[in-house]
């Protein structure tokens, strides 16, 4: 990696958007953990983002995109390199389609909540399943986020990407390889936007479904503590939470990291948990569940840093 003072100085000169140096990740991750990030930058336009990516690539500075940090653990040693936040790229555009459908184009930083709210106001159906998922469009597409019978892959029509050289291209749905909580992307590619296919629906039915999902989330999820949603992917046959409970791990703690008493697939931060405590608990859960049930739980939450 190039000399840190030099690349950070040049990055600052190149950007009109905000850039934070040695920024603690704990103020950003939904779990409230993580050490300092060498540079956290907020491009103000897609062109600026492309320029940042190209610059970091040439300087061989590691980089990653972040959205709303709701599926992310940053380790206590922090991140060496640059995290590129899409937060300031959040426009939404709606177009009517010839077949009566609606095409919703969203920039990567748009919160899913904005897409759900727009759907509610305009009576578009298709995005209801996203109600209550706190991610951004970029994070949701990358993770193929899903809940209550829907997944991003069901509504996503195309994705716009920036490659590691800073070039932009659009990828059609037929060429996107989605799987459970994943979209295959070439390394270091950044999603800058996505188009979704929605339909015009019945306003009351859409509102009812959204309310129903929000109520279920409030009832079942430990939203009173900091969390990152489901920590593990659900095996095909049985939900991860049920396996964790069956292994007797409900409520288990390391420091302030705890297997939620309300929903065992959530590991919550009850106060001052560190990334390493969360990770320690994740590993114990994987080990014990495997020993007792034969299921190898795979992590859903992403871990970065050192
Ligand atoms: C209370 C709660 C409930 C949740 N419920 C659900 C649920 O029901 N279903 C579900 O699927 N998830 C759920 N989640 C997890 C999380 O909200 C989703 O995975 C969400 O899609 C992550 O989006 P994000 O913007 O926060 O991504 P981040 O956490 O910022 O990033 C996640 C990953 O995506 C990558 N990424 C982010 N933006 C981009 C981009 N523009 N280009 C390329 N890669 C990118 C990051 O590098 C990282 O690897 C929940 C989380 C919480 C806290």
What does this entry look like structurally?
The chain has 306 residues and is of the alpha+beta class. The strands form six sheets. Strands 6, 7, 8, 11, 12 and 15 form a six-stranded antiparallel β-sheet that branches. A hairpin with a 2-residue loop joins strand 13 and strand 14 (182-183). The chain has eight helices and 19 strands. The protein has helices spanning 4-14, 46-58, 112-122, 137-143, 152-155, 203-220, 240-246, 275-293, and strands spanning 19-24, 36-41, 63-66, 72-74, 79-85, 92-96, 102-107, 124-125, 146-147, 150-151, 156-162, 168-172, 178-179, 182-183, 190-200, 253-254, 257-259, 267-269, 302-304. The protein folds into three domains: 4-85, 2-Layer Sandwich (Uridine Diphospho-n-acetylenolpyruvylglucosamine Reductase, domain 2); 92-220, Uridine Diphospho-n-acetylenolpyruvylglucosamine Reductase, domain 3, CATH 3.30.465.10; 240-304, Uridine Diphospho-n-acetylenolpyruvylglucosamine Reductase, domain 1 (Alpha-Beta Complex), CATH 3.90.78. Bound molecules: flavin-adenine dinucleotide (FAD). Flavin-adenine dinucleotide binds next to strand 3, helix 4, strand 9 and strand 15. The site of flavin-adenine dinucleotide has 32 residues, from strand 3, helix 4, strand 9 and strand 15.
CATH topology of the largest domain: Uridine Diphospho-n-acetylenolpyruvylglucosamine Reductase, domain 3
Helix-strand pattern: HEEHEEEEEHEHEEHEEEEEHHEEEHE
Class per helix and strand makeup: alpha+beta
Provide the helix percentage.
25-40%
Assembly category? single chain
Query: How many domains in all?
Result: 3
Question: What top-tier CATH class of the largest domain fits best?
Answer: Alpha Beta
Parts with pLDDT < 50 across at least 5 consecutive residues: none
* N- to C-terminal distance: 15 Å
User: Main beta sheet: strand number and arrangement?
Assistant: 6 strands, antiparallel
Q: What Rg, in angstroms, do the CA atoms define?
A: 20 Å
């Amino acid at each position: 990696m190039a000399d840190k003072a030099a690349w950070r100085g040049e990055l600052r000169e190149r950007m009109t958007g905000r850039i934070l140096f040695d920024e603690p990740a704990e103020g950003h991750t939904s779990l409230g953990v993580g050490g300092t990030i060498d540079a956290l930058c907020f491009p103000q336009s897609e062109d600026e983002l492309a320029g940042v990516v190209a610059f970091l690539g040439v300087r061989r500075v590691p980089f990653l995109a972040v959205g709303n940090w709701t599926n992310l653990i940053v380790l206590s040693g922090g991140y060496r390199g640059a995290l590129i936040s899409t937060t300031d790229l959040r426009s939404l555009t709606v177009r009517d389609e010839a077949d009566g459908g609606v095409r919703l184009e969203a920039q990567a930083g748009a919160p899913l909540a904005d897409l759900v709210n727009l759907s509610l106001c305009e009576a578009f159906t298709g995005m209801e399943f996203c109600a209550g998922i706190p991610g951004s469009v970029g994070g949701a597409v990358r993770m193929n986020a899903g809940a209550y019978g829907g997944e991003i892959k069901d509504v996503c029509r195309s994705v716009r990407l920036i490659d590691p050289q800073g070039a932009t291209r659009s990828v059609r749905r037929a060429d996107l390889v989605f799987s459970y909580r994943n979209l295959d992307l070439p390394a270091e590619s950044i999603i800058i936007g996505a188009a979704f296919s929605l339909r015009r629906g019945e306003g009351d039915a859409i509102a009812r479904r959204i309310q129903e999902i929000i109520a279920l989330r409030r009832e079942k999820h430990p939203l009173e503590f900091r969390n990152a949603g489901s920590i593990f992917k659900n095996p095909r046959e049985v939900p991860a939470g049920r396996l964790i409970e069956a292994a007797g791990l409900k409520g288990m703690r390391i420091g302030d990291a705890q297997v939620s008493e309300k929903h065992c697939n959530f590991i919550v931060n009850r106060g001052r948990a560190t990334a390493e405590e969360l990770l320690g608990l994740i590993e114990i859960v994987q080990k014990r569940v495997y020993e007792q049930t034969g299921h190898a739980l795979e992590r859903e939450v992403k871990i970065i840093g050192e």
